[in-house]
């Protein structure tokens, strides 16, 4: 049984397609740069939100301190004071729980937002149109390996500035026959 070279029969990209490839690369670059700008803006918003949350925490600490001071002041053996003291402790615990829950919710929202952004960056969906506007079937290769739709950059250990080869899929023609 003979092994067939995987690249056998693959024609190099014709000169007229090189301009299309450059346009595709430029479009991908522009799209990528736009996404990066959006993420930078989103990051700025997240930083502002973080500052707002820190401010809320400081307000909460101040209110907690005031409640603790009132509680200390109320420490007397008077039954009314003991009731007020117990009520203040309850209110303090309720406030602590609400603050923790609010912070946990905000952290979870930020985490989900960042996970979504990372997921969006991991994949680039392309539609390739010929010069006549019809969709063209293409294949992608990296370091000689065909890239499947479900493959990721991590699988091929791709880094920034790596190049993916694009080949137009050929249809028709005669195959080799052996008798």
SS class: mainly alpha
Q: Unreliable stretches, pLDDT < 50, 5 or more residues?
A: none
- Average per-residue pLDDT, rounded, comes to 79
How many beta-strand runs? 3
Q: How many distinct helices?
A: 2
Measured distance between first and last alpha carbons? 14 Å
The rough form would be described as rod-shaped
User: Helix proportion of residues, in percent?
Assistant: 55-70%
Query: How does the major sheet shape up?
Result: 3 strands, antiparallel
Portion in strands: 5-15%
The count of domains is 2
Provide the succession of SSEs: HHEEE
What is Rg?
31 Å
Strand order of the largest sheet: 2-1-3
Coiled coil: 57-127
Protein name: Ubiquitin-like domain-containing protein
Keywords: Coiled coil, Isopeptide bond
Domain Ubiquitin-like: 139-173
Strand and helix layout:
Elements: H1 15-73, H2 79-122, E1 138-142, E2 145-146, E3 165-168
Antiparallel strand pairs: 1-2, 1-3
Describe this structure in words.
It is a single chain. With 179 residues, this protein is mainly alpha-helical. The chain has two domains: 10-123; 126-170, no CATH class. It has helices at 15-73, 79-122; strands at 138-142, 145-146, 165-168. The chain has a three-stranded antiparallel beta sheet, with no helix packed on it. Strand 1 (138-142) and strand 2 (145-146) form a beta hairpin. It starts with 14 loop residues before the first helix and ends in an 11-residue tail after the last strand.
What key attributes describe this structure?
single chain, 179 residues, 2 helices, 58% helix, mainly alpha, 2 domains, three-stranded antiparallel sheet, 3 strands
């Amino acid at each position: 049984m003979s092994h067939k070279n995987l690249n056998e029969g693959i024609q190099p990209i014709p000169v007229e397609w090189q301009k299309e490839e450059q346009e595709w690369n430029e479009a991908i670059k522009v799209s990528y740069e736009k996404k990066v700008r959006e993420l930078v803006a989103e990051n700025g918003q997240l930083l502002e939100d973080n500052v707002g949350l820190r401010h809320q925490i400081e307000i909460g600490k101040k209110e907690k301190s005031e409640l603790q001071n009132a509680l200390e002041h109320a420490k007397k053996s008077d039954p009314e004071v003991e009731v007020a003291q117990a009520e203040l402790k309850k209110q303090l615990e309720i406030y602590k729980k609400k603050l923790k829950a609010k912070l946990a919710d905000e952290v979870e929202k930020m985490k989900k937002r960042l996970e979504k952004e990372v997921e969006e960056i991991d994949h680039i969906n392309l539609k390739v149109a010929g010069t006549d506007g019809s969709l063209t079937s293409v294949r992608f290769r990296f370091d000689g390996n065909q890239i499947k739709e479900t493959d990721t950059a991590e699988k091929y250990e791709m880094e920034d500035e790596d190049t993916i080869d694009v080949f137009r899929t050929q249809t028709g023609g005669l195959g080799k026959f052996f008798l």
